[in-house]
Amino acid sequence: MPGSGHELVTAGAYAYWTEKYATAKAVLVRRRPLDMSGPVEELATHTTPSGPSAFPAVVVAGGRVYWYNSDTISSVPLTGGVPQLEKSDVLARKLVADGAHVYFTGADYAHAADGVFRFPVGGGPVTQIAKAGMAGDITLTDNEVYFTDRSDNSIRKIAK
Fold first, then answer.
1. Among 25-29, 77-81, 121-125, where is mean pLDDT lowest?
2. Is the pLDDT at 49 greater than 80, yes or no?
3. Euclidean distance between the first and the last CA atom of the chain, given in angstroms as a whole number
4. In CATH, what number is assigned to the domain containing residue 110?
5. CB atoms within 10 A of CB 14
6. pLDDT band at 68 (very low <50, low <70, confident <90, very high)
7. Which of 5, 44, 84, 134 could cross-link to 76 by cystine, CB 3.0-4.6 Å?
8. Is residue 86, in this structure, part of any structural domain at all?
């Protein structure tokens, strides 16, 4: 059953990524040592009735791998295990993280707005930190969050 790879991130000695399998209605979370010395390991399989999302984003923070699939953000320990639901009723186009928060661009349906959102690593409420017409890419520095707004082709900056 062929899959299509998407987001790829590195943390420690591993590369982590998601693959979506439309026919199985699943997203696989995988890792492999950066030195290619070991096999590809499957950390989690996330199935949904509607199948994988168009934006299977992935990020590593706080000893966990976080990913987006079909209106949810889930996580699993870096060594694999049972997926844990972190957030539901969200649309996450991109995920990034620092030591304290997981950030995403998209929409939290409870806020009924598009923009940049974050929640604490380890759990907690989603907070909207910026509004946008259609937030897209995102990156972090020590003190700022930079993101694109696809509605007006701009790049914006806000304090963390």
1. 25-29
2. no
3. 42
4. 2.120.10.30
5. 20
6. confident
7. 44
8. yes
